[in-house]
Specification:
- With about 300 residues, the protein is an alpha+beta fold.
- It folds into two domains: about 130 residues, Fructose-1,6-Bisphosphatase, Chain A, domain 1 (2-Layer Sandwich); about 110 residues, 3-Layer(aba) Sandwich (D-Maltodextrin-Binding Protein, domain 2).
- It is built from eight helices and 14 strands.
- The chain has a seven-stranded mixed beta sheet with strand order 3-4-5-6-7-8-9, sandwiched between helices.
- Helix 1 runs antiparallel to helix 2 and helix 5 packs parallel to helix 6.
- The termini are far apart.
- Its EC number is 3.1.3.25.
Length: about 300
């Protein structure tokens, strides 16, 4: 750890690396890890809990008067009325982890009076450490990072996350993906939102969007993006997004091009935009039903034709 880093960031790095060591040990025999299910397709493992425990212990040893908001334990630990609140995702990408798919990370952010001021995202499988302090830039393994310089959406690689919870609007998400895919060089779904945001900050991807995210998924990554020169907000482009469960990030030019594409799908979209999305979805459904009816009506004719040619 560097003496030039903010002391609170140094402590967060220590906590993230300790959690990463637990995750890496467990990854050596992932099939023996005990898994439980919070809801459909939403898993938690003993590794999530052990990782969160060591993070909280490390942070509160250094700063016992600080608050904690963690994915698994909520606000159970730490001070309840502090202006300093650590926001923790001990293992973002749990589903990837339990399958041995090496895309997951530890995410730790510090909010001061509601504003994110310190951020660490640690990818233990690659030993990649992303850090940021408000006003001091963003770094990957102590090297300064910047968002990409691409200006045209057609040249861009965009990352996203698919809906997987009961009640998620799959049709709306498919429409969003279709709108973006047709305008870009590619769409990716790595499966760890915090790492997706870190990759936007590093310029590995040019943008990212997803709905249904919690504050611990996006807190650290959002500071990385802005300190790397990017923009982050909700789908309509508003910056106060942390607890709105929709996130859009990108380099400034690409962010500006994604807002008009995705804004109409936002829960904050105008009534007119929402109506247009519903109408488009209804039209697609009618066209799909019509195509299915055509296929069904063609089947008896095809069978009859086969019958005429069949030698009996």
């Amino acid at each position: 750890m560097s003496s030039t880093l903010h002391p609170m960031l140094n402590v967060a790095i220590k906590a993230a690396r300790a959690a990463g060591a637990i995750i890496n040990r467990a990854a050596l025999d992932v099939e023996s890890v005990r898994i439980s299910q919070k809801q459909i397709n939403d898993f938690v493992t003993e590794v999530d809990h052990a990782s969160e425990k060591i993070i909280i212990e490390t942070l509160l040893t250094a700063y016992p008067g600080h608050g904690i908001l963690a994915e698994e334990s909520g606000t159970e630990y730490g001070a309840k009325d502090s202006e300093f609140v650590w926001i923790i995702d001990p293992l973002d990408g749990t589903t990837n982890f339990i399958h041995g798919f090496p895309v997951y990370c530890v995410s730790i952010a510090l909010a001061v009076k509601g504003k994110i001021e310190q951020a660490v995202i640690y990818d233990p499988s690659r030993n990649d450490l992303f850090t940021a302090t408000k006003g001091r830039g963003a770094y990957l393994n102590e090297r300064r990072i910047r968002v990409s310089k691409r200006t045209q959406l057609k040249d861009c690689l965009i990352s996203t996350g698919f809906p997987f919870r009961p009640g998620d609007n799959f049709k709306s998400y498919l429409a969003m993906m279709s709108d973006v895919m047709q305008r870009t060089a590619g769409l990716r779904r790595p499966g760890a939102a915090a790492l997706d945001l870190a990759y936007v900050a590093a310029g590995f991807t040019d943008g990212f969007f997803e709905t249904g995210l919690s504050i611990w998924d996006v807190a650290a990554g959002s500071l990385l993006v802005t300190e790397a020169g990017g923009l982050v907000g909700n789908f309509t482009g508003e910056a106060d997004f942390l607890e709105q469960r929709e996130c859009l990030a990108g380099n400034p030019r690409i962010y500006g091009q994604l807002v008009p594409i995705l804004g109409k799908y936002s829960k904050f979209a105008s009534a007119g935009d929402k109506a247009a999305v519903r109408q488009a979805a209804a039209t697609d459904t009618q066209e799909a039903d019509g195509a299915a009816d055509t296929a069904e009506s063609a089947t008896p004719q095809a069978d009859a034709a086969k019958g005429e040619d069949a030698p009996f």
